[in-house]
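Page 42, continued from yesterday. The earlier attempt failed because a stray header line got pasted into the input along with the sequence. Redoing it now with the clean sequence only.
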Amino acid sequence: MKKIVIVLSILFLFSCERFDKKVKHFKSGISGLDRRVTLYTCDGEIIKTWEGNFMIELIGNSASWIDDNNKEVKISGTFIIEEL
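This time it went through. Structure tokens are written below.
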């Protein structure tokens, strides 16, 4: 009986969304993810867009990452981070 409970618990763990999210966060921390970051003005116009494979660090209402040119980018304001 214990073996059945353990197997069902493992299957449940691997099928739940929370586990998938933790795996995604782990992968992001190790190698980054393909992302698009768009920074907007207060009027909703696009200021700049960045695309690449990077790990983003969120600190308060700002974000920072190392871009493809090995330069650190720090932004704050209204921005959207999308996974590609």
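Notes: The two ends are 44 Å apart (CA to CA).
Reminder to self: strip header lines before submitting.
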